Amino acid sequence: MSEKIPYSQLPNLILVDGVPSKNLGGISQTLYNLFENYPAEKLFALCDINQLNEIAVSSLKTNVVSSTYKSLQFKRKPFSFFNAYLKQIDLFIRELFEIFFINLESLPTTGVLFICTSNIEKLQIAKKIANRKKYQLVTYYMDDWMGENKLNWLIGNAQEYVSWSLNTASGRLMISEYLNEKLIERYKLPKKPTIIVHNPVDVINHSTNELTDKTNAIFKVAYAGSIWPMHKDALTMVAKAIENIYLAGNQKIEFDIYTKPQIWEINQSDFNYLGLSYKGFVDYDQLFECLRNYDLLIVASSFLKEHEKFTNSSVQTKITDYLNFQVSILSVGPSIGASNLFIQKWNCGFVWNENNEMTLENNIQYIISNPDLRKEKIGNGIRILNEKFSKKIVQPELYSFLQQFI
Prior knowledge:
Layout: E1 13-15, H1 26-35, E2 43-47, H2 49-54, E3 63-66, H3 83-97, E4 112-115, H4 120-132, E5 136-141, H5 158-168, E6 171-174, H6 177-187, E7 194-196, E8 219-224, H7 229-248, E9 253-258, H8 261-267, E10 276-278, H9 287-291, E11 296-300, H10 308-311, H11 318-324, E12 328-332, H12 338-346, E13 350-352, H13 360-368, H14 371-389, H15 391-403
Parallel strand pairs: 1-2, 1-4, 2-3, 4-5, 5-6, 6-7, 8-9, 8-11, 9-10, 11-12, 12-13
Helix pairs in contact: 4-5, 7-13, 14-15
């Protein structure tokens, strides 16, 4: 951490959605990278029963504050059909009683309540804690998960809680300027101190591998991460395009997917494409050694209207990690998708969208045949990591931002 900010001048920070971990991906991984060098004695993490079971050596060192409340749900079919209805009852009960399942005495007297979640239950308990403790409030939203959330529970609803969190906050963090603009417009937000914060990385100093551009050499493509609905259709487009190149026989090519076994099990029937292989899950600390020898890394953002709020608001965590490996990036998604716009803004990779004159397979072949252009974009990526998105830059800026709320 920067020596410009003494530990004593940083506020206690209460994270409302579990202990961050570098192996859980998404929000959890980003929070780990942001607060890895924050003083552990000043970090508090509120964990439900499931989150307590997730704490491991890959988790951030924090003071754990447990919640013993158990949600109402059926775990077996056909009764799980009723869970949507049970959730409303559950939220109603939480509204009235959940605060009594938390040991408030284990929380600090003063501090910042840091709301970073895509879980309405966590917003609910955050408001209860805020009403009991004299905390400053800071929000960090990473995508527009709340945009279509219509949940209500007789004495409350999701939109009221999101609005409360943003309007009450002393300061706001946002994953992109696009999300910031959208939330200001939707919730009529007053002006507050705000910063745009991306997933920071420890920049790895290494030389770029020799770039494959020969048809008799295997061009290796990889995707690492979850396969959620907001990724899946774009990822299947990539798989189909690579199969077309594979079948044409003019270029040797392989596509490897790294994701958790349970995620692959759910999705594997939709990824029966030639040239594609499932390679299992790789811990965050092993990603560099695993991916550095690939030729192209994929970012996938859904083209489907039902996922546009996610696609148009969230710059995916994996982008800065990919840049750090000094491997070319191809971001596939809509022209107004936040990840595509990020790549274009910094000229640090390739994008393919619905307006591209080339087919996706032709676009991939264009990337293969232009190693000098790949090298230029890789160089741009390393430069912006060092200037804007390294932990050495982002962490002190964030901690200075939080310091004003002590």
